[in-house]
Amino acid sequence: DRPAVKCRFVAASSRRRRYSLTWKEREMGDVRDVLQAKTRDIFTIDEKKSVADAITQMMDHSIGSLIVTSAGDPVGMFTERDVLKVWDQQADECRFSDIPVSQGMTRDTIAVGPNDDLDYIMSIMIKNRIRHLPVVENKKVVSMISIRDVVRAQVKDLKVENHYLKEYISGKFV
Question: Fewest C-beta in 10 Å: which of 30, 82, 109, 173?
Answer without folding.
Answer: 173
